[in-house]
Amino acid sequence: MASTSKGNTSPAVLLLADGTVFYGRSCGAAGTATGEVCFNTSLEGYFEVMTDPSYAGQIVTMTYPQIGNYGIDLADVQSAFPGDGSRPANAPAMRAMVVRDMCPTPSNWRSATSVPAYLQKLGIVAIEGVDTRALVQHLRDNGAQMGIVSTEEFDLDELASRLAAAPQLVGENLVKTVSCPEPHPFTTADLPAAHDFALASPAGEGVANPAVHRVVAYDCGVKRGILEGLVRAGCEFVVVPWNTPAAEVLAMNPDGVFLSNGPGDPDAVPETYTQVQQLIGRVPVFGICLGHQMISLAAGAQIEKLKFGHRGGNQPVMNLLTRRVEITAQNHGFGLVFPSLGALVPELSGGVAEHPTDGDLRFWVERGIAPVVENERFGRIRLTHVNLNDGTAEGIQLLNAPCFSVQYHPEASPGPTDAHYLFTAFARLMAGEPDYLSIDIAADRLAGWNFATEEN
Ligand SMILES: NC(=O)CC[C@H](N)C(=O)O
Prior knowledge:
The active site is at 289 (nucleophile), 409, 411. By secondary structure, the protein is an alpha/beta fold. The protein has helices at 46-50, 115-122, 132-142, 156-165, 175-178, 224-232, 246-251, 270-279, 290-298, 362-367, 421-430, 441-446; strands spanning 11-16, 21-26, 32-40, 58-62, 66-67, 96-98, 101-102, 125-128, 145-150, 184-186, 213-219, 235-241, 256-259, 285-288, 302-319, 324-337, 343-344, 372-375, 379-387, 393-398, 403-406. The longest helix is centred in the N-terminal third of the chain and has 11 residues, at 132-142.
C-alpha cells in the first residue's frame, strides 16, 4: 500500500459488485458503507456535490484528482434537510466518497473546516489513493453497479456477502429519507449572506427581486441552490414534504408548483407523481431533475436507467426552441424515454411521423426541429432540450397546460450558470407569458439575471 506524506496509513477498500477491488486509505469516518458507485466529473464544487441530497444511496467518486484543497464553507451547503433523529440538519446524504487524493490542510479564507474532518464528524466513510481513472473507465465500460467501502473489514468474501445483502438503488424509495418532515417557508431571508454571493439583479439591491410569485415546492431532497435561484427570480416558497396531497397544495392557492430534484429511482415514488397528475393543468408546474421525471411519469411515460448517468459540470445541452447550447451541471442516473410520451404530431414535427428508431434525439438537433407528441393524459408535449453528448431527452414543455421541466440543474451549484434563464422562464410562465421558454440566454444575463459569484 502506498505511503502518504499525510501520516494517514489507515487502510480502506472498495469492492464492486462484479468483484473488482481497489485498495486505498481512509480519509473520512471509520466504518463500512454500501451504495451505487457513481462518478462526478466537476472540476470544483466538491462540497456542493457532497451535500446534494440526490446522492442518497450512492458512493460518489470524484474524477478531479485533488479534493479538499480549498476546504469547506458551510454557506455552500446544498442540503436543505432540516434534520431529524437519524441525520443532522444539512448533512450529506451520500453513503461514501472515493477520491484520488484528499487534502487535509486546506488553504482558503472562506474555509471553516477540512473535508476529512467534516466527513469524520458526520460519520461518512471515504477512501483515497484509488486510481479513479481506472475505476471510472470500468464503470463507463461495464455500467453503474453497487459497491462497498470499508475501513474495518478486508475479507473480500465477507464484504461481497454484505454487499449482496444491501438494498439496491433500483426500486428503493430514497426520496422519503431526504424530504422535509413538515412544511416550512423559504424566502429572501433564507438567502446566504451577501458577501458569499454578490448578485446583480433588476431590483438593483444586490440581493433579489421582490417576491411576486407564491410557490409551493415539493421537497424530494431539494438543493438550496434551486430554492435560492427561484427566490432571486421573484418567488417565495412553502416547501412541503414529498407526499403532500395535491388537494392540500391547491388549497394554498399558489401561483405555481415546483417539483424538486431527488435521489434514486423515480419509479419508486408513485406517491409524488400521482399527485403531480392532479396538479398539471390546474396550476403552473416546473420540475427539475427528479421533478422532470415526476412530470414524465405523471404523463405515463417510461423512465430508463442510464448506463452510468450524467454527473458533472460540463454537459452540453441544446435548447431546441432557441438553438442555443447551454453548458450545464447534471446529476442523474435515469432518463425519460421520449417516444414513450406518445406518437409524433407530424405537422408540428417537421413532417416526421415516426420516432427515430436508434433512440438518439440528436436527430432533431440536426434538423432544427422541436418535435411534438400527442400524450394520452396531457395532450401535446414538445421536446425542448437534448443532451448533445448522448442524445437523451433533457427538457419537455406541455402545450395544453402551463408546465415544463428539465433533467439538468439550472442552479448549477456547482457548475456553469448558462441555464439560469430557466428560473426566469418559470417566473414568466407564472406571469402567463406564452413564449416563456424561448429566452435568449445572453439577453437574459444583460437584463440583470446574473448570478455570478464574486469569484467570477
Ligand atoms: N438530481 C436528481 O434529481 C436525480 C434524479 C434521479 N434520482 C436520477 O438519478 O436520475
